[in-house]
Amino acid sequence: MSPHPVRAARRGRDRKADVVPAHEGRDRHTGGDAPRCAVVGGGIAGLAAATLLAERGVDVTLYEREASLGGRLAGWPVELADGSAATMSRGFHAFFRQYYNLRGLLRRVDPGLERLRGIGDYPLQHASGLYDSFARVPRTPPWNALGFAALSPSFRRDDLGGLDARAALPLLDVRLPELYARYDGISARALLQRIGFPEAARHLAFEVFSRSFFADPDELSAAELALMFHIYFLGSSEGLLFDVPDEPYPQALWDPLARYLDGHGVRLRTGTPVHAVEPDPRGGHVVVTEEGTDRADALVLALDPAGLRSLAAQSPTLCDDAWRARVGRLACAPPFLVHRIWLDRPVGADRPGFLGTSGYGPLDNISVLERWEGEALRWARKSGGSVVELHAYAAEPSSDPEALSRTLLDELRRVYPETRRARVVDERRLWRADCPLFAVGGADDRPTVDTPDPTVTVAGDLVRTDLPVALMERAATTGFLAAAAHLRRWGLRGQTLWTVPRRGRSAVLRGLATLAGTS
Question: pTM for the full model?
Answer without folding.
Answer: 0.94
